# Entry
Amino acid sequence: MGHKIHPIGLRIGVIYGWQSKWFTDRKPVYTELLHEDLAIRRAILEALPDAAISKIEIERNANQVTVTIHTARPGIVIGRGGQRVDELRSQLEGLTGKRVRVNIQEVAVPELDARLVAQTIASQIERRVSHRRAMKQAVARAMQRGAKGIKIRVAGRLGGAEMSRKAVELVGRVPLHTLRADIDYGFAEAVIPQGVIGVKVWIYKGDVLPEREERVEEAVPVAEAPAEVTGDVAAQEG
# Structure
């Protein structure tokens, strides 16, 4: 039996940080805020299904909630004259009962974002594009943009088959057990008349090496030699 673990969760605290940045030591409050975070993410994804959202970061300060949306299509999130983002902010404030600040962060290279790649493959499968063709195109684009390795796994009733099967495409290296390896992981689902097809993507971008802290050592005073040598010592040395 394989023991699987989330590639990003394995590296939190090593090379990755948390997507929710807040702290409380009271159990009821923690449970309430945790479910509130889940509700915020669910509401944003439902309100912006076509915005190519990669991840949503949430930070809390006093009575204000700062939500950062990482998307490959910032224009869709902002809307004409900022109308859509204002509507989203009002919706989130009504959901949480707190002040909400929404920041938009553009994903510079969507071909190297695993979640966006998985969403692209899933949408192509829903449009009846061959899963093999969609996987090969995604692999080629990722490698052209500088990925060190990519692995794509598609499982379900592929091609309308009666029994579920899986297809895997792997190019380059994907070292899942190396903690310093920067591996992005994404998952998406394609809903077709025959059922649901799952798409998993791993993208290896290289190693993240820890930075060494420079230590400034204090200078140790050196004992000074005597300026003059006495006659007895000079005679002994002679």
About this structure: Residues 110-207 form a domain with the Ribosomal protein S3 C-terminal domain fold (CATH 3.30.1140.32). The mean pLDDT is 88. Helices lie at 7-10, 27-47, 74-78, 83-96, 114-126, 131-144, 231-237. The two ends are 84 Å apart (CA to CA).
